[in-house]
C-alpha cells in the first residue's frame, strides 16, 4: 500500500474536528446511501513503487517489438527518429510538465512563449500564417479541419483522398456521424488520387495527403484547382518531416495544413500522446480550433504572451465554439519546439534528406528481389509500399524473429477493399528514418529475400 | 558585425533575477549554427531532385531557428524559470485537479520497452501493451461501475464527444431519432461544445438555489426527443447532486441516457460509482484523477466507460483477451469506429495504471477522502473571509464568491486571484462556473498538506484585509511575477501569433 | 494544532516570485509523514535486538526530516530556483572552465549497464567497464603525451597528491631523499596544500613582470634536495609559460621531476602536450576539460598520467588488456598503492570518454582554439574598461584588474563581480591568482557565443560606467538576486553549520 | 564529427579580425614551435552522439554484472539500495548539476541550503555536532580523519582495526607515505578487533569500523577507552545505513565519524562517484577538512547560507591548509539529502531493519548448507562473511551464470595474510539490501548449495 497523501492521522483528526465531523466517511454523509459504494473498490490493495515497477517490467518484456530489441522500419504516420538527450532533458523539465493550461499568463510565460515559438515553427513549415497551440493527433486534426471547412462553407461534403492515412479517414468517418458531414473517399490508382473520378463541385473541402500514406508524393495542383473551382477549402495533410524539403502546403495553395507532429521529438509511444499540427490562412483564423498564443504587453510595457482570440473556445462560446478541444498536447508542442530548435534549418533538411536516401537505397535493394514489387511507380520520399508474394503480416512475423520490424501491414490499417489499394493483404508499408544504417538496410534486404523465397 | 547582435547575447544571462524577458529562439538564432548530430549511416547520398522530382523540392529550406546546443539549453531552461508549476508550489485551480503527480509515473513512461514500441506493430509483437490496456480497462470499469471501456479518446472533451456518438449510435440502433441533450447551466464549456459536435441541440436546465440541478425544471425539459443528459457529479460548483437517483429515473423513464462527465471523479473514487448512480456513459480525465501531469495544457486521456447495453458500440478495435489467453485487437460488434489515430494516448494510460496499482482500491478511496477533506477545511477556514457560494459541505472543490468583497471595496475575484500570484500561490479558477457571481473555485487536492492550506488561507486573508485600503494596488497586481498584469485585449486586437507576424 | 505550523505551509508557495527564503527541510518536517516506499519482499520480520543485541540498538530513531513526496519535490525544486547554473546563463568563472556540458554525457552516465555495476564484481563480469577504462587511459595518454595513467584520483587535488607520491616513490627507488618542491607564487591553493601532504616543503618562486615563472629565480631555487616543480601551463594568470623548455631542462638537470597541474588543459588540448613540454607527471581535471558538470562543487575526476619511467609506480590495480585480449586488474610493479576506495569516479570517467569520442582529436583541438579565441576577444573588448593584468595574448582565460577603477572610484573588483550578478551573469573569479591586484579572472570557455561575450562586455561596461556616480550602490550589490549581499563574517563568527546549531 | 561550439566560420573570422590575427593557429603563435604538436592528436575523428551511444551500449553489454541482468548480493561498502524516481528527478535538476562550488552565495542559495541540510542530516546520524560538505569517498575520508588526528595530537601512529575495509586501509597506507603517519593494523579474531594485542599508548588515532567489513557489529567501548587513555582521537568508520538503527558514533564517544555515503541515493556506479561522509566534535572544527556551509544573514536581514571557516581551506591557507580538497562530491551530498528526505525517520529505520532481516534470513539458510560456515560467530547487521569449501571467486562465477552476483570475494579486497582473516581465498562477503525478496534469498541458498556440492 502506498499513497502520496501528506496527512498524518493526527492532522486528519484535527481537520475533521474543525469541521465538526467524526470520520472521513462523514464527509460523504450527504450522498444518498443507496448509491454509495459499500465494501470498497474491487481493486487489489496498493503496492509499493518497486512492486509496480516489476509489474511494468513484465509488460515491457512482453513487447517483442520494443525499442532496442528490434530495428524499426515501421512508419505509416509514426516514425523512429532520433530524440537526443538534450531534447529529453529540456522537455521533461518539471516546470513544463507539471503546469496547467496557461490561464494565468503572469506566471506562465515559460509555456506561453514556448508555444508561441512552436506556432511560429509550424506556421513556417506549413507555409501558412497562423498555427494553433496543438491538437490531439493527426487524425483528430483532420476532423477539426473538416469542421472548419463545414463552418466556412456551410456545406457538408468532404472529398478526401484515399491517400490520407486509413486510420485518419476512419476517424473522420466516426466524427462525421455527429457533424453530419459526408466523407467521400477519392480512390488511388498507382498511388495517385483520382480526383477526376468524382464531381467535387459541392465540396466543402478537398483533402490531399502529402506525401500520401503509401509514400507517394503527389502533385497537388489539380486538387487545389478543384477546391478553388468549388469554393471549398483546400486541406493538406502533410508529413512535417517532408515539409523540411518538399514544397509547403502554403506553396501548394492550401487553406489548411495539418499533420502528425510525432516525428518532432516524441517517442513512438505505442501511438500516443502524439501531436496534432494545424495551420491555416488568416481568413480562417476565427474558426481556428483550440488555443492560440499571442504576443502582447504587460502593464509595464514588457513583451508578454497570452492565450488569445479566446472567444472561439468552448469555455467562452460553449455550444457555438469552433471546437470542443480543451486539454491539448502542449507538452508535445513544447518538445517539438525544442526538437526543431535542436535540428535547426540544416538539421531538419538533413533528416528529411537522409530518410529519403535510406528509403531509396532500400527500395532499390528490395524491388530487385524476385517477387517483390513496388505498389506504385510514382516518386516517393521516405516511405514506400511493397507488394509481396505472401501476406505481409507473415513476412513481418518471419523478419521479427531476426530482430527486424519490417514495416506495417497495410491490411492492419485499412480494410480489404479500401479505395487506396488492391490486394491489401500482401502490401507492406516500409519507412526508413535517418537512424537506419546501410548495414541495417542491407540486412533488411537479405531477410526479406529469405522471407519471400 | 554579428557579434553585437543583441538580444542574442543578452539571453545568456538574467536567469534568477527575475524581470527581464527572454528573447525568442528566433532572436537567438544565428544562421549557420546547429546543434543536431545525426548518426553515421554509410548510406550513399543522393539528390533530392533525383528522388522526388524538381516540382516537389522546396527552393529554399524553411528557416527554423539556428542555435548551438548551449543556447538551446539556456533558452528553454530560462523559460522554465518563468513558469509556475505544481512542483514549485500549490496550484489550487478548481476543476483542474492539479495534484502532485508521482515521479514514479514519469519513470514508467520513460521505459523504452513501453514508449519505444511502434503502434503499427502487430499484436503478436506487442502483447505487453495489449495486456496493459486490458488491465487498465478492467480497473477503470471497477472504479466507475461500468461494463466496458474505450481507451482511445485523447482527453476529456474527446471522451465527451465519443460518449455522445455512442448515445447517438445506441438510439439509432433502436430506430430512434432523438435530437436534444440536456445539460445544466453549471456545466463545463466542453459539454455544450461536444453536444453540438455530436449533432445534438443543447437544452440547458437551471440550477436551483442549492447549486444543484432543478429536478422539476429537468422533468419539464425531458421529452421523447431527448437523447440524454450530461452531468458531472460532484457538479462544477463542487456539490454532490443528491437527487441523482431521481434524475436518473426521470431521464431513463424518458428513454434518455445519462452521461457522466468524469472530470470531478477525484472526489468520489471508491466512495460512489457513476454506474451505481445510474449513469450509462462515463468519461474519465485520467490526467486529473489518475495523475498525469498536465504538461502545460496536455496531454491527457479521456477513456469512456459504458454500461453493458452500450458496450457493443464502443470505438475499436479494442485490446481484448482472447480465448487462448493472449491478447488481440477486436472491434466491438456495432462499433462507432475509431476516435484516435492509433490506440489513444498510450503513455498516459500506462501512467494511470501505474498510479492505480500503487494506490490500490484502498489508496484510491483515501485520495478521494483527503481531497474532500482539504476542500472542506479550506472552505470553512475562509468562511469569514470569502464565503462559499453555497454554504454546505462541498466535495473536492470549494467555490467561494467575492461578491460581497467587490460590493464593499471594488476588489474583484480576479484581483484576489492575481494578488495570490504575488503571494506565491497559483490562483484558483475564476469566473467559472458561470452561475456563481465572482466565483473563486479552489481545489486544493489531496496532495497539499494542512500546513499549505493554512498558508494559502492566510494569504487570502492578507489580500482581503488589504482590499479596504489598497484596492488600487490589488487592481494592478501581480507585481512580483515574471511579468505584471498582461494586456489580454491588446493581444486579441492586434493578433501576433507568430514571430513573423511580430516582424510584420 | 499542527495545521497553523508555518513555515511548513508557506513553503508550498513563493517559487517564481523571488525574494522569500525557503524553509529548511526540517522546518517542513511533520513527524509521522513519510515518502518512502519499499519493495514487498516477503522476508519475515525479526527484532533488531534479537539480531544485533540490545547494546547496539539505538534507543530512539535518529530524527531526520519527515516529508510527503510532494513537499520533498516542492522543496528541492524551489531550492533549484534559487541557484544559478551554466544551463541558465554564462558562468565565466576563471580557473573553473564552466563550459556547457552535453546532455548526452548525462545520458551515458544514466545507463544501468554502466552505473548499475557493483565495483566489487569480478573482472570477468565487468569486462565492459575495464575496456572503457583502458580506452580512456589510452586517449588521455595521447592527449597529454604520456606513457600511462591512473584513473583513480577523484579530483584534481587528489591527482596532485597522487603525483607527488609518485615523485616520492620515484626518488626513493633511486635512493634519493629530496625534500623540496618548487611552485610558482601564482599557483592554485591545492598545489601547496598537496605538497605538504606529500611530505614535501614548499619553495615558492616568484613570477616576473610578464606574469611568468622567473627563470633565474627558479634556477636559484633548484638544488639536489629539490624533488620537482609543479606548474600549470597556461599558468593561473592565463599565460603560456613560454620558457617551458628552459624550465624543464633546468629542473631535469637538477634531478627533479616536472609536475603538470592540468586544470588549464582546456587551453591547449591538441595544440601542445605536457609530455612534449618535458613534464613527467600530469593530472587532468576531467570535470573541467572533459565536461563533467561540476555538480555544485563536485564530483570530478583527476587522472594522473606519467612518462614511462614513472609508469611502474602508478596506483593500482589498473584495468589492463591482458594477453588473450580480455581485461583484468593488474597492479603496476612498484605501485604506490590505492588512492581511491574503488576504481575512481567511474561515471565521471565514462562521461569524459564519451565527450572525447564525440569530439575526436580534431574536435578537441577546436575546443582549445575557441576557448582561447573567446578569452582573447573578451580581453581585447574590455581593454579600455578593465585592463588585463598583463597586456599580452592570453590563453583560455583573461585576468583583468580593477586596480585603476578602485583607485579612481573606490569600486573594487569584488563590487564589479557582485554587480555582474545583478546583470544576470555569473561573476568571474575574484582575487585569484593572488599575485594580481584586484584580479577579475574571466574564463568564457568555448561554448559561449560571441553574442554572449558582447552582452557580458556591455554589462561590465555598464557597471564600470556607474562606478563614478553610484559607487555606494555598487558596494552593496547585488540587489536583484535571491538574497542580497551575504554577511560572510557573521557566518564565521557565529558558526551555525546545522539546523540543530541554529536551534541552540 | 561533432562539437558544441557556437561559432560560425564568419564569426570566427570576425573575432580573429578584431584581434588582428589571420587564423586560429595564430592564437598560439607565442608557444615555442618546438613544443607545439604537429599533425594533431592521435585520436580518431569525432563521432555523432548516436554513434558514440552505440559504442557505449557495447561497453554496457560486456558487463555481465550489470543491473537488471544480475541480482546483487555484493556489498563491502557499496550497496544496491532502492533509489526512487523522485530522488533521481530532483538530484538531476540542472541547477544543481551545472553549478560550480558556491563561491557567490547570492546566486547559490539552492546548493548552499541543500548542503546545510545535508550537514544536519549527517551530523544527526553521526551523533556529532558538525559535518562537512562531503569528501571524495569513505576511503579518502579515513585519510582525512587520520590527518586530523595527526594535526590534533602532533603524533603519527594510527591504530586501525583490521575490520576497516581493506581498500580503505590500503588508501590510508598510500597517503601515509606523504604524511609520515604509521598505520598499525590491529588484527581481528573471530571478527573482533584485538585491541589488546597492541600498545596504543602513543596513538594519534584509534580507528574502529562499525559494523566492520566482515559485517560484525563490535562493541566500541574498549576502543574508546584506549583512545582516551592515549589522548588520541577516537575515529569510527561507520555504515551510514546501520546508523539508522545502531548506536551512533557519538553515542560511542567518537571524536570523528566517517563513512561511505553511497547508500544514500547514489547508484553502484562501478565505485564512483561516491560520497565521503565526515563529522566530528566541535573541538576539531578548525581542523575539519573541506567545505562547511554556515547560516548567516544577507544585507536585508534574511537568512542566507554561505561557505564558512574558509581559513582552513587550501585556497586561503595554502601549504598550511588542513586538507588539499577542493572539488568534492556536492552533487552526491545533495542527492543524499534528497534521499534521506525521501526516507524520513521511519524510512531509514525500515531500510536498515529490512536489510538486517534479509541478511539474517539468508544467513540462516546458507549456514545450514553442508560445508558453508560463518567466518565469525559474532552479531552482524546486514552483511556477513562465509567460509566456503571452494574458492569464493569460483563460486561467484558459478552463481553468476544463473544471474546471481553472490557477493564479493574477500581475496579481491585484501591480500592473503591480511590481519582480518585467515584462508581468505575461500571467504565470501554477502550483503542483503531491502530490495532482496524472500524468493531471491531462497534462490540464492539453492544456488549456493549446488555450487558447493
Ligand atoms: C468539468 C470538466 N469537464 C470536462 C473537461 C474537459 O476535459 P479535457 O480538458 O481533458 O478535454 C474539464 C477540463 O477542464 C472539466 O473540468
Ligand atoms: C589551477 C587549478 N589546480 C588545481 C585545481 C584543483 O582541482 P580540483 O578542484 O578538482 O581538486 C583547480 C580547481 O579549481 C585549479 O583551478
Distance between the termini of chain B: 24 Å
β-strand percent of chain A reads 15-25%
Named at the architecture level, the CATH assignment of the largest domain in chain B is 3-Layer(aba) Sandwich
Major sheet of chain A: 7 strands, mixed
CATH architecture of the largest domain in chain A: 3-Layer(aba) Sandwich
List the helices and strands and how they pair.
The complex is a heterotetramer, with 2 copies of chain A (453 residues) and 2 copies of chain B (504 residues).
Chain A: H1 9-18, H2 49-61, E1 71-72, H3 85-91, H4 94-97, H5 109-126, E2 130-131, H6 138-153, E3 157-161, H7 166-179, E4 182-186, E5 188-189, E6 192-193, E7 203-210, H8 221-230, E8 233-238, E9 256-260, E10 276-280, E11 293-297, E12 303-307, H9 314-317, H10 330-367, E13 373-374, E14 383-387, H11 392-400, E15 404-405, E16 408-409, H12 410-413, E17 427-431, H13 438-452
Parallel strand pairs in A: 1-15, 3-4, 3-7, 7-8, 8-9
Antiparallel strand pairs in A: 2-10, 5-6, 9-10, 11-12, 13-14, 14-17, 16-17
Chain B: H1 25-28, H2 48-52, H3 69-80, H4 103-109, H5 112-115, H6 127-144, E1 148-150, H7 156-173, E2 180-184, H8 190-197, E3 201-205, H9 215-221, E4 226-231, H10 244-253, E5 257-262, H11 274-277, E6 281-284, H12 286-289, E7 304-306, E8 318-321, E9 327-330, H13 346-381, E10 398-401, H14 403-409, H15 413-422, E11 429-430, E12 439-442, H16 450-467, H17 471-475, H18 488-493, H19 499-503
Helix pairs in contact in B: 4-13, 6-13, 7-8, 13-16
The complex binds pyridoxal-5'-phosphate (2 copies).
Amino acid at each position: 500500500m502506498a499513497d502520496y497523501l501528506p496527512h498524518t492521522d493526527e492532522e486528519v483528526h484535527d481537520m475533521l474536528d474543525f469541521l465538526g465531523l467524526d470520520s472521513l466517511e462523514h464527509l460523504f454523509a450527504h450522498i444518498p446511501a443507496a448509491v454509495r459504494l459499500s465494501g470498497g473498490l474491487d481493486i487489489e490493495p496498493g503496492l509499493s513503487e518497486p512492486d509496480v515497477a516489476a509489474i511494468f517490467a513484465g509488460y515491457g518484456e512482453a513487447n517483442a517489438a520494443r525499442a532496442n530489441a528490434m530495428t524499426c522500419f515501421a512508419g505509416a504516420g509514426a516514425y523512429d527518429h532520433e530524440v537526443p538527450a538534450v531534447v529529453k532533458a529540456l522537455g521533461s523539465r518539471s516546470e513544463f510538465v507539471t503546469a496547467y493550461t496557461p490561464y494565468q499568463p503572469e506566471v506562465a510565460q515559460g509555456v506561453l512563449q514556448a508555444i508561441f515559438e512552436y506556432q511560429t515553427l509550424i506556421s513556417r513549415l506549413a507555409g501558412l500564417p497562423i498555427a494553433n497551440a496543438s491538437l490531439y493527433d493527426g487524425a483528430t486534426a483532420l476532423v477539426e479541419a473538416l469542421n472548419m471547412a463545414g463552418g466556412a462553407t456551410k456545406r457538408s461534403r468532404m472529398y478526401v483522398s484515399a491517400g490520407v492515412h486509413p486510420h485518419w479517414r476512419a476517424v473522420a468517418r466516426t466524427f462525421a456521424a455527429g457533424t453530419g458531414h459526408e466523407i467521400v473517399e477519392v480512390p488511388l490508382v498507382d498511388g495517385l488520387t483520382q480526383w477526376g473520378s468524382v464531381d467535387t463541385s459541392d465540396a466543402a473541402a478537398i483533402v490531399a495527403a502529402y506525401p500520401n500514406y503509401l509514400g507517394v508524393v503527389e502533385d497537388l495542383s489539380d486538387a487545389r484547382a478543384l477546391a478553388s473551382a468549388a469554393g471549398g477549402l483546400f486541406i493538406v495533410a502533410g508529413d512535417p518531416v517532408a515539409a523540411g524539403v518538399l514544397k509547403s502546403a502554403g506553396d501548394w495553395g492550401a487553406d489548411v495544413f495539418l499533420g502528425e507532429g510525432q516525428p518532432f521529438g516524441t517517442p513512438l509511444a505505442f501511438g500516443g500522446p502524439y501531436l496534432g499540427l494545424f495551420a491555416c490562412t488568416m481568413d480562417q483564423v476565427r474558426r481556428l480550433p483550440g488555443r492560440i498564443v499571442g504576443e502582447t504587453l504587460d502593464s509595464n510595457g514588457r513583451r508578454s504572451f497570452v492565450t488569445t482570440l479566446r472567444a472561439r473556445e468552448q469555455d467562452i462560446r460553449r455550444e457555438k465554439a469552433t471546437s470542443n478541444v480543451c486539454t491539448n498536447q502542449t507538452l508535445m508542442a513544447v518538445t517539438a519546439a525544442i526538437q526543431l530548435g535542436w535540428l535547426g534549418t540544416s538539421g531538419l533538411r538533413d533528416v528529411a534528406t537522409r530518410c529519403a536516401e535510406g528509403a531509396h537505397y532500400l527500395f532499390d535493394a528490395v524491388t530487385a528481389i524476385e517477387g517483390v514489387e513496388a505498389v506504385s511507380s510514382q516518386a516517393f520520399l521516405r516511405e514506400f509500399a511493397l507488394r509481396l508474394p505472401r501476406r505481409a503480416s507473415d513476412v513481418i512475423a518471419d523478419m521479427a524473429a531476426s530482430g527486424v520490424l519490417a514495416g506495417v501491414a497495410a491490411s492492419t490499417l485499412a480494410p480489404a477493399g479500401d479505395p487506396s489499394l488492391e490486394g491489401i493483404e500482401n502490401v507492406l508499408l516500409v519507412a526508413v528514418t535517418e537512424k537506419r544504417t546501410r548495414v541495417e538496410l542491407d540486412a533488411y534486404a537479405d531477410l526479406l529475400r529469405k522471407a519471400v523465397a | 558585425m554579428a557579434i553585437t547582435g543583441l538580444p542574442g547575447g543578452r539571453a545568456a544571462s538574467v536567469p534568477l533575477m527575475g524581470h527581464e524577458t527572454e528573447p525568442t529562439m528566433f532572436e537567438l538564432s544565428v544562421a549557420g549554427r546547429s546543434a543536431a548530430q545525426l548518426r553515421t549511416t554509410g548510406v550513399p547520398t543522393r539528390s533530392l531532385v533525383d528522388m522526388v522530382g524538381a516540382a516537389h523540392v522546396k527552393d529554399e529550406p524553411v528557416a527554423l531557428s539556428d542555435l548551438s546546443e548551449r543556447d538551446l539549453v539556456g533558452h528553454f531552461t530560462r523559460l522554465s524559470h518563468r513558469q509556475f508549476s505544481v512542483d514549485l508550489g500549490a496550484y489550487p485551480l478548481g476543476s483542474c485537479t492539479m495534484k502532485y503527480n508521482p515521479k514514479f509515473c514519469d519513470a514508467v513512461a520513460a521505459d523504452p520497452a513501453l514508449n519505444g514500441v511502434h503502434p503499427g506493430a502487430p499484436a503478436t509483437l506487442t502483447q505487453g501493451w495489449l495486456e496493459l490496456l486490458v488491465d487498465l480497462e478492467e480497473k477503470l470499469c471497477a472504479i466507475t461501475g461500468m461494463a466496458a471501456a474505450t481507451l482511445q479518446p485523447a482527453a476529456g472533451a474527446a471522451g465527451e464527444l465519443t460518449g455522445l456518438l455512442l448515445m447517438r449510435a445506441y438510439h439509432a440502433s433502436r430506430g430512434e431519432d432523438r435530437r436534444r441533450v440536456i445539460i445544466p447551466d453549471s456545466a463545463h464549456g466542453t459539454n455544450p461544445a461536444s453536444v453540438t459536435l455530436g449533432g445534438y441541440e443543447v437544452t440547458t436546465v437551471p440550477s436551483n438555489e442549492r447549486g444543484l440541478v432543478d429536478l422539476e425544471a429537468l422533468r419539464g425539459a425531458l421529452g421523447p426527443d431527448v437523447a440524454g443528459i450530461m452531468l458531472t457529479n460532484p457538479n462544477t460548483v463542487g456539490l454532490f447532486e443528491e437527487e441523482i437517483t431521481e434524475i436518473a429515473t426521470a431521464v431513463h423513464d424518458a428513454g434518455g441516457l445519462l452521461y457522466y462527465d468524469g472530470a470531478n471523479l477525484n472526489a468520489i473514487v471508491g466512495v460512489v460509482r457513476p454506474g451505481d448512480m445510474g449513469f450509462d456513459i462515463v468519461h474519465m480525465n485520467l490526467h486529473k484523477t489518475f495523475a498525469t501531469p498536465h504538461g502545460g495544457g496536455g496531454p491527457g486521456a479521456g477513456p469512456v466507460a459504458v454500461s453493458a447495453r452500450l458496450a457493443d458500440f464502443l470505438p475499436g478495435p479494442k485490446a481484448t483477451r482472447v480465448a487462448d489467453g493472449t491478447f488481440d485487437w477486436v472491434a466491438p460488434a456495432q462499433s462507432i469506429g475509431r476516435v484516435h489515430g492509433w490506440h489513444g494516448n498510450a503513455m498516459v494510460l500506462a501512467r494511470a495504471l501505474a498510479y492505480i496499482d500503487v494506490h490500490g482500491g484502498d489508496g484510491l478511496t483515501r485520495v478521494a477522502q483527503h481531497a474532500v477533506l482539504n476542500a472542506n477545511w479550506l472552505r470553512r477556514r475562509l468562511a469569514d473571509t470569502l464565503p462559499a457560494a453555497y454554504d454546505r459541505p462541498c466535495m473536492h472543490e470549494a467555490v467561494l464568491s467575492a461578491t460581497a468583497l467587490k460590493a464593499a471595496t471594488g476588489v474583484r475575484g480576479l484581483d484576489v486571484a492575481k494578488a495570490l500570484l504575488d503571494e506565491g500561490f497559483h490562483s484558483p479558477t475564476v469566473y467559472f462556473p458561470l452561475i456563481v457571481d465572482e466565483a473563486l473555485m479552489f481545489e486544493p487536492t489531496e496532495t497539499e498538506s494542512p500546513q499549505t492550506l493554512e498558508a494559502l488561507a492566510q494569504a487570502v486573508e492578507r489580500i482581503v484585509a488589504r482590499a479596504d485600503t489598497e484596492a488600487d494596488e490589488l487592481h494592478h497586481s501581480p507585481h512580483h511575477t515574471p511579468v505584471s498584469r498582461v494586456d489580454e485585449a491588446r493581444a486579441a486586437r492586434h493578433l501576433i501569433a507568430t514571430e513573423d507576424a511580430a516582424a510584420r
